Amino acid sequence: MKLSKRITHLTPGGSDGWDVFYRARAMKSAGQPVIELTIGEHDIPTHPSILDAMHASATGGHTGYAAVPGTQALRQAVANRIQSRTGVPTTPANILITPGGQAALFAAHTAVCDEGDVALYIDPFYATYPGTIRGIGATPQAIPAYPDHGFQPRAVDIAKHAKGAKSLLINTPNNPTGAVYSRATLQEIADTCVEHDLWLISDEVYDTQLWEGDHISPRALPDMAERTLVVGSMSKSHAMTGSRIGWICAPSDIIEHLINLATHTTYGVAGYIQDGAEFALGEGVALEDEVSAPFARRRLITESLLAKQNIVKGSPIQGAMYAMLDIRATGLTGEGFANDLLNTHSIATMPGESFGIAAAGHIRVAMTIDDDTYTSALKTLLDFAALKAA
Ligand code: PMP
User: Fold this and answer.
1) For domain 5-45+286-389, which CATH number applies: 3.40.50.720, 3.90.1150.10, 3.40.50.300, 3.40.50.10860?
2) Where is the Aminotransferase class I/classII large domain positioned along the sequence (predicted)?
3) Could you read off the pLDDT of 32-46 as tens digits, one per residue?
4) Across residues 258-277, what is the average pLDDT?
5) CATH code reported for the domain at 64-283
6) Portions of the chain given CATH number 3.90.1150.10
7) What is the mean pLDDT of residues 48-68?
């Protein structure tokens, strides 16, 4: 019996570039202590007040099938949040609640791409992007955004592949680079989308983790609301990664189709999770700031340690929970460095090469462990780099 190409070709060679991560996890389960600076997972649990809201909802009976598009109250809360942050008129008819941002990425591409269409995305990229595009039968095409341009994509590079393509996926604040796209970058992207008639899928799951500049949603740029699908999530903003709750914000006719898709795929999101999310959004920025505060602190730790040496160069950490470090002065590839560091010091990082070609010679450090352990792991990493460069 033969499985479909769709599933067997999701990730090339069966690998998804997370080999160092899997090796670190295997070492850990074999009993070896490993410091993991790998994935985007908070070191704090979901706030007890959100869990209380979920518990009250569940024990109050919201355990049956919930409305497939999302509860009206949560759709309204998300619409309010988006409208107040961007100024773009937004109603519940523009919102579909999804089981996390990942499901939203899959649904958004399903909405705009047919089988065989070319879907563009920016490299360095969040690990699932090309697989998500392949998963809906489209062809992923990477557009490099280079370190010497602050990992901001340029219109000339997008234009090279834009002809005949269907969509462009961007992510700001960015995982893995920590870049926040400037207004100029986003305007160039918007102009390119209009010129080449591309749908824009804007992954904004890190919109509360902003350390420098402004978060601009491209949906707010002139003529963009009608061609932009925004992907949002409670995972990063509220430390709710395990609750699987996010959304798509798009023109209402697209949302109508996406509700139909949800009916035939997820059949909605658990009602008590949605009620917990509604409560969390009701707490406003105070709770979001509490959740993002550890990353703000560790960003400062990272920048101060980097400033004390000159082997490893950091890209500006403008947003999100990651530092993208240029380790080319060691003469190693990102993969070589990450593997060596794991073998010799039991510190796991992600090689830049797992995120595409543009981050080759880099490693991504997730600032997702407590401040003291983070500080000492980063010191060890920098000493290791100095030794290699010597
Ligand atoms: N987009 C980006 C850029 C991410 O980093 C992640 C998770 N790491 C997601 C989307 C998906 O997040 P979730 O499904 O948990 O909302």
Assistant:
1) 3.90.1150.10
2) 33-380
3) 999 999 988 899 999
4) 98
5) 3.40.640.10
6) 5-45+286-389
7) 98
3-state secondary structure of 329: helix
CB-neighbour burial class of residue 31 (10 A; exposed 0-12, middle 13-18, buried 19+): exposed
Q: Is the CB of 246 under 6 A from ligand 1?
A: yes
Tell which atom from ligand 1 comes closest to the C-alpha of 234. Answer: 16
Looking at residue 11, its pLDDT comes to: 84
Residue 55 predicted with pLDDT over 60? yes
The rounded Å distance from CA 236 to ligand 1 centre is: 8
> What pTM value is reported for the model?
0.96
The answer to whether 389 touches 330, Cβ cutoff 8 Å, is yes
Asked if pLDDT for residue 16 goes beyond 60, the answer is no
Q: What is the mean pLDDT of residues 57-81?
A: 98
Helical H segments across 245-348, by residue range: 252-264, 271-282, 284-307, 334-345
Residue minimizing CA distance to atom 12 of ligand 1: 101
Three-class DSSP category at 357: coil
Asked if residue 14 has pLDDT above 90, the reply is no
* DSSP per residue, 73-105: HHHHHHHHHHHHHH-----GGGEEEESHHHHHH
User: Distance between CA 170 and CA 168 in Å, rounded?
Assistant: 7
- Other CB atoms within a 10 A radius of the CB of residue 80 amount to 15
Which part of the chain is CATH 3.40.640.10?
Answer: 64-283
SS (H, E, C) 44-72: CCCCHHHHHHHHHHHHCCCCCCCCCCCCH
232 within ligand 1 shell (Cβ under 6 A): no
Q: d(Cα 110, Cα 358) in Å, to the nearest integer?
A: 27
